[in-house]
Design a protein that fits this description.
The chain has 539 residues and is mainly beta. Among the domains are: 162 residues, YVTN repeat-like/Quinoprotein amine dehydrogenase (Methylamine Dehydrogenase, Chain H, 7 Propeller), CATH 2.130.10; 63 residues, no CATH class. Helices cover 4% and strands 46% of the residues. Strands 1-10-9-8-7 form a five-stranded antiparallel β-sheet.
């Protein structure tokens, strides 16, 4: 056994404090939802189960209501969303282990203090597998040694081959094969799950490895698995019940819906698909490509919700989900060879218009067959970014400009020849690459790098809404409107601009990644990003 202490001056150089993005925010004003990957560790308080995941930070599961609450991620100040170990200590401090070292929070929510792995003396490649506590210390288990820490400061007070006192451990990743047959034989599993007494088998027939085992303060057995599902064992009924809250992708390209969302994104190295997300009811259903027949593997860039169908636009094809029949089908659209992406959908009567990187495609809503129209030929081989409509007009944003199609008279107008210009209206210097559209009850907004302009439905007039300097003349990925406030998502973050008072807020945090879509629901804005689905309570 080797004991040591570090000089005090090192402590001040190796401790880092991380809180929510800025101190003016409450811990869960910003929330990040992600694909979780496997469950590595579980720990308990009287109120929560804290679940350390491979990709999704620390999930919080309310033990009283059996519901998921906001997870703890980089949005709350963690240095990483890949959590190897978690432990809720008896003094109320929450400890987390990752590849960076360890972090702890006195509030169990935000204001995280990080202790670098170098200060802990962890060799390169060494992983923290479990965190626990004795009467007076916090303990870390790695593959080679046990580390003893001061429970208040996190200062390392010793390391040894085995603890010299009794340690109460939170669960860690199962690294060696264990025999689960007796446990799985004793319990039945609900919701269509089965077991072969070595592992679990999902309702889709996929074999699922158990990755961690924990015992709650109620003496219930919890099993965590490799796909993010965990099971709670009822001691009376001898039944395991499954729970899961994960996204199908972390790179969210599109958000569709009002009260609940359908989410689509880019393929990744893990299991991918689409997600049905209802935060009010704590529902997150995942439909993966490898577990659903007729659902071809595809990145998703656009979604439209129809009566009994959800259409997902991908690369050179669409995936249609019939919600009534619970049936999937993939259709090849044959858009072209030059980056054949479907950027947007628009429903016009019994037609579905597709905005693609090679023009416009029009499909019959019922039989999915192509419909010929002169508008298709007009925009052939041009990138069409987005589509929107009023009663008689379809607005089309493209790489070569903004166009308006009169659906009654079959006429195409450009921006300069349609509607009326207000006295002070200044046409943007760049007439091209209008990349985003949004609308409310009275107005429709169009954005490019030279500014945001607005069209009045009532008097058919054009006016300027936002100068490009407000968002740094950056490419606009998406825009959303809430009365006088406009939210502008660019490649550099989000700008919240009050068009009445000419005041702005800029949000640009590392945990955003790149922003792909933006949506307003109630008091929150929702961001589809390369780092997951992010919400911000702005009211």
């Amino acid at each position: 056994m080797i004991l040591f202490k570090y000089p005090l001056f090192i402590i001040t150089l190796t401790y880092l404090a991380f809180s929510q993005p800025e101190n003016r925010f409450l811990p869960f004003d910003w929330v990040q939802y992600r694909q979780t990957g496997k469950i590595n560790s579980i720990s308990f308080s009287n109120r929560y189960a804290y679940i350390g995941t491979q990709l999704g930070g620390v999930q919080r599961f309310n033990l009283l209501s059996n519901r998921f609450e906001e997870p703890i991620t980089r949005a709350q100040g963690l240095r990483s969303n890949s959590i190897n170990a978690v432990h809720r200590a008896s003094n109320g401090v929450l400890w987390v282990g990752s590849s960076y070292g360890i972090e702890y929070s006195l509030s169990e929510e935000g204001d995280w203090t990080s202790i670098n792995r170098d200060f802990l003396g962890l060799p390169f490649g060494e992983t923290i597998y479990r965190i626990g506590e004795s009467d007076q210390d916090i303990w870390l288990e790695t593959s080679t040694l046990f580390y003893r820490l001061d429970p208040i400061t996190g200062v390392v007070t010793g390391r040894m081959s085995n603890p010299n006192v009794s340690v109460l451990w939170s669960s860690g990743l199962i690294r060696f094969q264990i025999d689960l047959s007796n446990l799985l034989f004793e319990y039945s599993i609900s919701n269509g799950w089965m077991t072969d007494f070595r592992s679990l088998i999902s309702p889709n027939g996929k074999q699922m490895r158990v990755t961690t085992i924990a015992t709650s303060i109620r003496d219930e057995i919890w099993l965590g698995t490799e796909d993010g599902t965990f099971f709670i064992g009822d001691n009376t009924m001898k039944t395991f019940s499954p729970f899961r809250f994960t996204l199908a992708n972390n790179d969210i390209q599109y958000i569709e819906g009002k009260d609940s969302f359908w989410l689509g994104g880019r393929l990744n190295q893990y299991s991918s698909g689409v997600t049905y997300f209802d935060i009010d009811r704590s529902i997150c259903d995942v439909f993966t490509f490898n577990e659903n027949i007729n659902m071809d593997r595809n990145s998703i860039y656009s979604i439209i919700k129809l009566n009994n169908e959800i259409w997902f636009g991908g690369e050179d094809g669409i995936i249609v989900y019939n919600t009534k029949k619970d049936f999937w089908r993939t259709y090849n659209v044959n858009i072209g060879t030059n980056k054949p992406l479907i950027n947007s959908f628009l429903k016009i009567n019994n037609e579905i218009w597709l905005a693609t990187n090679n023009g416009i495609v029009i499909l019959n809503k019922n039989n999915k067959s192509r419909i010929n129209n002169e508008i298709v030929d007009y925009f052939n081989n041009n990138t069409v970014y987005d589509l929107s409509n009023t009663e008689n007009h379809i607005f089309i944003t493209t790489e070569v400009g903004l166009y308006i199609y009169d659906n009654n008279n079959n006429k195409i107008y450009d921006l300069e020849s349609f509607g009326y210009k207000t006295k002070n209206f200044i046409l943007p210097s760049n007439h091209f690459d209008y990349t985003a559209i949004t609308k409310d009850e009275k107005y429709m907004y169009f954005a490019n790098q030279s500014g945001i302009i607005v069209f009045n439905f009532k008097d058919r007039s054009w006016s300027n809404a936002v100068e490009s300097s407000i968002y740094g003349s950056q490419e606009v990925k998406s825009i959303a409107i809430d009365k006088e406030k406009i939210f502008i998502a660019t490649i550099n973050g989000v700008v919240e601009f009050d068009m009445n008072n000419n005041t702005l807020e800029i949000y640009n945090y590392k945990f955003f990644g790149s922003i792909n879509d933006i949506y307003i629901k109630g008091k929150k804005i929702w961001l589809g990003t390369s780092e997951g689905l992010i919400s911000y309570r702005y009211k």
